TrEMBL record:
Lineage: Bacteria, Bacillati, Actinomycetota, Actinomycetes, Propionibacteriales
Composition skew (Low complexity), residue ranges: 1-10
Organism: Kribbella capetownensis
Protein family: Belongs to the binding-protein-dependent transport system permease family.
Record's protein name: Sugar ABC transporter permease
GO CC, any one term: plasma membrane
Amino acid sequence: MVTTTAPPTTARKKAQAPRAKAGMTRKRREALAAYAFLAPDTIGLLIFVALPMVLAFGVAFFKVDGFGNYQYVGLANYKLMAGDDQLWASLRVTGIYVVTFVPIAFVVSFALAMLVRNHFKGIGWVRSAFFLPNVVSLVVVGLIWQFLLVDKRGALSKLLAPFGLGDVSFLGTPSLALGTYVVISVWFLMGYQMLVFLAGLKDVPKELEDAAQIDGASSWQRFRYVIWPLLRPTSFFVVVNSTIGAVTGLQAFDLVFVLTKGGPARATSTVVLYIYEQAFTFNNMGYAAALTTVVVAILVICTGLMFGFTRGGRFDED
């Protein structure tokens, strides 16, 4: 009697088939779960961001008043920008604000992250104190700072009175208003950026720092050659995110609207505030839509250039 047996490889494949099918089923379930978690944000972005952007691009070719009357004007709204002095002044203010706010906020938040990186007694309270401004409404933040900085009667004026600065109008002087706005913005956002840097620092392997210390590297050398290279993707995210926020974020409108409404003498009139004025003060909806598309295009180009030059924060890699 002859008994035939399946080759070992065939038997092994038959035994592995159910496990492979189970693995595929598990991966499919995980993929479905991931899509389910992403779906709400994706739908929200499509409805509240992508769709309004498409509509704004279409409205930019019309003259639209506050009563919903549409008149096709082609590229007239875009041609109008060339001679709009207030637009160029707003772009200049926004540019000064971005190049001032972004590096200062970066340095301050990174220094705070390094300060609270190590655990010590009360570290949770310290981190919460730094992050607390970020959970407060920007309108409330603006009102608080307005109360502190009100001319001659504000709390800060009284504190500075012994130094001869009690009569200084930080929000009413054109040369000081934008700088004051930058300081308040940094104070508001430093806690959030600190947490982002802390998350990046958590990913730095402690073994690499210990090895560098054993090899005789100083604190600066450990930071320069171990910590900083590994933090470049995080740093890139902070720079891009803060740049976009400085141009179009809430602090670019809510805060300046509550504090100064663009004054004094248009010294704090950002481009987002100018777009708001064109749309809801002067009822130039078509022109405001055209301005929005230009601002978005500028941001896309700048972000693309930053990605291209730094490879998404990995510009030190070959």
